[in-house]
Amino acid sequence: MTRIDFHTNVGNSLMYACRLVRKAYQAGQQAVVLAEPARLRAFDEMLWTFSPLDFVPHCMAGSAQAAQTPIVLTADLEQAPHHGVLLNLGAAVPAQFARFERLLEVIGDAPEELASGRERYRFYRDRGYALNNYKQGG
Fold first, then answer.
1. pLDDT band for position 91 (50/70/90)?
2. pLDDT tens digits, residue range 4-53?
3. 71-95 exposure pattern, b = at least 16 Cβ within 10 A, e = fewer
4. Starting at the edge strand that comes first in sequence, how are the strands of the sheet with 102-106 ordered?
5. Strands 102-106 and 131-135
6. Which of 11, 26, 74, 104 has its CB 3.0 to 4.6 Å from that of 61, i.e. a possible disulfide?
7. Per its UniProt record, what PROSITE patterns does this chain match (predicted)?
8. Fold adopted by 3-135
């Protein structure tokens, strides 16, 4: 069964997600980041600039290098080249999340993120998934 971790109260969810994928990369894990196209573009840009001393190799799922790249960004999980860690930055429950060993849900402070995060939390809980909660800040 997929392990599901909720990271809440994170402030800027894209910045927090950058740190999570850096951690996964440094641990030798592959990750797929799912979001709507505009949010993916913003995340892609942030991965290049969030830490001047770190490089996190990443590409879009449609790239010829996707299968060899540790961090893959996509708006469509059908294109995911690996199924280790899924980081969901989208508003909906990923249709194919059960294919992954681990799902990370990152919930920022924006009202729309909080509302969609609560809906996703209830969805997983109501289906019997054990949920791990990591609340940041105070």
1. very high
2. 999 999 999 999 999 999 999 999 999 999 999 999 999 999 999 999 99
3. bbbbbebeebbbbebbbbbbeebbe
4. 58-60, 71-74, 31-34, 85-88, 102-106, 3-8, 131-135
5. unpaired
6. 74
7. PROKAR_LIPOPROTEIN (PS51257)
8. Rossmann fold (3.40.50)
